[in-house]
């Protein structure tokens, strides 16, 4: 997407005030700051949006001015990518549709392309070659790239993730137990705010660094898979992780596949009330009860009446009273 960028514009977009640079090199685009409560786009991966329908002769880039300057620059350049795709780079839209395929989401592909455009402007490929070279990607590469550019963490993540010709994800963690931003290469998207696997390297990323530990990418989402994970704390509010199928030291130890979510969900037996957490049934896609071995294929017509509380409650196998009465010490 850098091909349609006018000569001389790259340096200005990279180093000068981004709003001014866009208006100078891309008239008649107008760039306006807005408070964060006015940024309402649910599709964009950044704090802003591109508007061209209210006044086609005067398209606008609107962005939040309540973020860091690096973050605002990334947002403005991301939205500039949308403008380029519908103007000088409109021929790329058909390419994006082909990348999405019949089952894919063209909007998601376009968002990823605009992320990559912003990253390419802010982080030159030559710098990636200097920092990473032929090494497997590691969190220290992300940290060094951030130190040597004016790019936001998100822009750096996008560039580092897309540098190697292999499946890689760079994950930013700002809140315990959830992903803040994910840049990926050859992997499915992982939405902001998604929960991570409890006790894994991503879950502990804000507390301690990890090296070559397995973790689940897209935890509890369709297409989840085990990847190796390296994490590094930037400070108490930010950690960087790199996830890939290969170990960061070049090792080739195989990872166990992730069980589908339907095989790991927590359920109680409708017959006896005990936990259904043993094996699984391929017909109802549920696990079997640890006490009576029943799955979810057959449902009880009605619960038995407890002789103690006289309520229709599940009774554990081998017990005279229901589980509630049993918990109260009534036998």
Structural write-up:
With 331 residues, this protein is α+β, with helices and mostly antiparallel strands. Helices cover 27% and strands 18% of the residues. The protein is built from 9 helices and 10 strands. The strands form 3 sheets. It has a 5-stranded antiparallel β-sheet with strand order 5-4-8-7-6, with helices on one face. A 3-stranded mixed β-sheet has the order 1-3-2, with helices on one face. The chain has a two-stranded antiparallel ribbon with strand order 9-10. Strand 2 and strand 3 form a beta hairpin. Helix 1 packs antiparallel against helix 2 and helix 4 crosses helix 5. The radius of gyration is 26 Å and the shape is elongated. 34% of the residues are buried. About 2% of the residues have low confidence.
Short structural summary:
With 331 residues, this protein is α+β, with helices and mostly antiparallel strands.
Set down the secondary structure blueprint.
Elements (H helix, E strand, L loop, with lengths): L8 H7 L2 H8 L4 E5 L13 E4 L8 E5 L4 H18 L5 H9 L5 H17 L2 H7 L7 H9 L5 H10 L5 E6 L7 E5 L24 E8 L7 E11 L2 E7 L31 E6 L4 E4 L33 H5 L4
Helix pairs in contact: 1-2, 3-5, 4-5, 5-8, 7-8
Shape from CA axes? Answer: elongated
N→C terminal distance: 72 Å
Oligomer status? single chain
Total helical elements: 9
Mean pLDDT: 84
Low-confidence stretches: 40-44
* Cα-atom radius of gyration: 26 Å
Structure summary, number of beta strands: 10
Which percent band covers the strand fraction? 15-25%
Structural class: alpha+beta
Sheet with the most strands?
5 strands, antiparallel
Instruction: Assign a percent range to the helix content.
Output: 25-40%
SSE string, helices as H and strands as E: HHEEEHHHHHHEEEEEEEH
Order of strands across the biggest sheet?
A: 5-4-8-7-6
């Amino acid at each position: 997407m850098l091909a349609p960028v006018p000569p001389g514009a790259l340096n200005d977009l990279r180093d000068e005030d981004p709003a001014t640079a866009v208006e100078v090199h891309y008239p008649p685009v107008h760039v306006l700051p807005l408070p964060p409560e006015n940024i309402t786009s649910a599709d964009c991966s950044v704090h802003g949006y591109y508007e061209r329908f209210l006044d086609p002769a005067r398209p606008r880039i609107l962005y939040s001015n309540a973020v860091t300057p690096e973050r605002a620059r990334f947002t403005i350049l991301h939205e500039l990518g949308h403008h380029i795709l519908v103007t000088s780079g409109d021929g790329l839209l058909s390419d994006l549709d082909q990348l999405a395929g019949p089952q894919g989401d063209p909007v998601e592909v376009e968002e990823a392309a605009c992320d990559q455009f912003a990253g390419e402007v802010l982080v030159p490929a030559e710098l990636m070659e200097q920092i990473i070279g032929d090494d497997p990607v590691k969190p220290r590469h992300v940290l060094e790239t951030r130190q040597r550019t004016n790019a936001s963490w998100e822009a750096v993540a996008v560039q580092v993730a897309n540098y190697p010709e292999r499946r890689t994800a760079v994950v930013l963690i700002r809140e315990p137990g959830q992903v803040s931003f994910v840049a990926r290469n050859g992997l499915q998207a992982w939405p902001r705010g998604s929960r991570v696997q409890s006790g894994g390297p991503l879950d502990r990323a804000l507390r301690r660094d990890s090296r070559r530990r397995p973790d689940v990418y897209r935890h509890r989402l369709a297409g989840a898979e085990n990847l190796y994970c390296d994490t590094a704390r930037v400070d108490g509010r930010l950690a960087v992780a790199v996830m890939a199928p290969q170990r960061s030291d070049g090792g080739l130890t195989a990872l166990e596949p992730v069980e589908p979510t339907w095989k790991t969900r927590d359920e109680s037996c409708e017959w006896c009330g005990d936990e259904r957490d043993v094996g699984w049934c391929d017909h109802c896609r549920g696990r079997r009860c640890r006490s009576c071995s029943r799955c979810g294929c057959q449902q009880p017509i009605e619960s038995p009446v407890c002789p103690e509380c006289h309520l229709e409650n599940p009774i554990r196998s081998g017990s005279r009273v229901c589980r509630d009465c049993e918990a109260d010490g009534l036998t």
